[in-house]
Every structure is written in structure tokens, then in C-alpha cells.
Amino acid sequence: MAKDPATIYTGKQLYEVHGIPWPYLRQLLISLSKEALIISTRGMCGGFILVKSKTDITLATLWTARPLKLTNELKFLLGGLLGFALAVPAGIMQADVRLNKILHNMQWVVGPHVHVAVLVGLTMTFYAAIYILFPILTNGAKLYSQKLANIHFWSQLIGGIGMGAFMGMAGPKGMLRRTLYFEGEFDLYMLLAHICGALLLIGFLAFFINIVMSVGLNGLAGLLKATKNRNKDLFPEAKGA
Ligand code: HEM
Ligand code: HEM
Fold this sequence. Notes:
Elements lengths: L10 H8 L3 H13 L3 E4 L5 E4 L8 H7 L6 H24 L1 H7 L3 H31 L8 H25 L16 H38 L6 H4 L7
Antiparallel strand pairs: 1-2
């Protein structure tokens, strides 16, 4: 539709192009037409036509139309994007040769740059992939608790950004990286960074318990048991071969 906004597409054509199951596609089309993003016309040449140009449709437009559900995978993906949105500008700042003279070798580099990039940017994107793969890999197992998934999300997000931020605050105050301080100079920042680090641990435990409880203790033990199937059963010979 976005490729050729002036054309009227029938429901069948949209179904064939996107492969979305018809009942779900129908719901999507109803939500989109309620929000006046598409118009549906009836009759011989009836179908659906895009109202707004594709450049005017943003994530917020789709969100208000509600076809996007804030699932765990989407939440974690957005968290990951936020992580990169914070860590990349920190990297660009420290790549400036004049700022680098001050920031190089400071806690700043390992805080807002390295750990926000790896613990929020990379890790949360990775968790988004796990949440999307989980039902596929477990043959449709349901997540044990959405509350635990929420604890996981907020602990990872606040813990990761917080740890990086408090390490970063100690940097411009003079705290070098790879250096131990025994006079308590940066104790307050390090205590706060520790609390955020502990939050990361809580988040991971919530995730781990949730996954273990979702597959069940029997399911977990099953991973270690040898399969009763023989290789021959798993890869049956082609008929007539
Ligand atoms: C546009 C994006 C980025 C820019 C401009 C950038 C720039 C920099 C610069 C200038 C440094 C050296 C700072 C110094 O020691 O003085 C650095 C260090 C580092 N960056 Fe980035 N960075 C970017 C993205 C990333 C991403 C996405 C990651 C990880 C996922 C990352 C991981 C690291 C690590 C681990 C170090 C520290 C290496 C060490 O131990 O010295 N960077 N970055
Ligand atoms: C909760 C998890 C983590 C905690 C609490 C943590 C903590 C730390 C601390 C305290 C440092 C030393 C900072 C300094 O130089 O004074 C450090 C360095 C570093 N961390 Fe982490 N980290 C965590 C996870 C990770 C992960 C997941 C990665 C990468 C995927 C990573 C990559 C690095 C790197 C590249 C350095 C610099 C090492 C160096 O100076 O040679 N960290 N981390």
C-alpha cells in the first residue's frame, strides 16, 4: 500500500502480499480505518486505500491506531534502541579530539559509553530476540509470569542506564578507569553504581526464573535427557529414494 498509495487494494491482495492470517488482517484494517489511516470502499471496485502519505505515518501514528501491541519483544527492542541512542552520542563526544584529551582513560568511557552500549543497547536487543524466539523454540510454551518479565525489563533498563550514568559522573570529577581508590573519594558514585548493578542482577534472576518456570522443571530436565527418536526418525528418507 505504501509503495503505491493511490491504488485501491482488495483484502485478498493484501493477504496474498503480506501473508498475515485473514482474521488478524481484518482486525488491523478495521483499526486503521477507525483511525482514518485508510479508507475502505465497497462495491465492484471496492477495497482499501491509504489516506496519509507514507512519510506522514510514524510509529506514534500506528501506536494510536493500536495495531502495535507493546509486547515484551517490542519493549526490549525500544529499550535497546534507547541504549544506543545514549551510548552512541557519548562515543561521538569522546571521539572529538579536544574532549578526548579530558575524557580518555576516565570512568566516562567505560560508563555512559561502553556499559550503556553493551548492557542496554546490545543486551536489551538480544533479550528482544529471546522473547520472540521463546514460543517458537519451545513449541508454543507460554511465559510463566508477565510480572517477572516487567521486573526484568525495568531492572535492566534502569540498572544499565543508572550504572553507566553514575560511573560517568565520577569520570569528570577525576576518577580514572582501571584504577582503585582507597580514600573514599568516589564512594558515593560507586555506591549508586553498585545499587544499579544489583538491579541488573535482580533483572537477570527474574528473567531466569521466568524461563525455568515456563518450561517447567521437567521440561528443563528433558533438555539433558537423550531423545527417544533415532536419527533415522528425524530425517525420514525421501519417498522413492
Ligand atoms: C558512533 C558510534 C560510536 C563512536 C563514535 C564510538 C567512539 C569511541 C571512542 C572514541 C572510544 C575511545 C575512547 C577513549 O578511550 O578515549 C570508544 C571506546 C569504546 N567503544 Fe565506542 N563508539 C561508538 C559505538 C560503540 C558501540 C555501539 C559499542 C558497543 C556495542 C562500543 C564499544 C566501545 C568499547 C568497548 C570501548 C572501550 C575500549 C577500551 O576498553 O578502551 N562503541 N568508542
Ligand atoms: C552487570 C554487569 C557488569 C558490570 C557490573 C560491569 C562492571 C565493570 C567494571 C567495574 C569495569 C572496570 C571499570 C574501570 O576501568 O574502572 C568494567 C570494565 C569493562 N567492561 Fe564491564 N561490567 C558488566 C558487564 C559487561 C558486559 C556485558 C560487557 C561486554 C559485553 C562489558 C565490557 C567491559 C569492558 C570492555 C570493560 C573495559 C575493560 C578494560 O578496561 O580493560 N561489561 N566493567
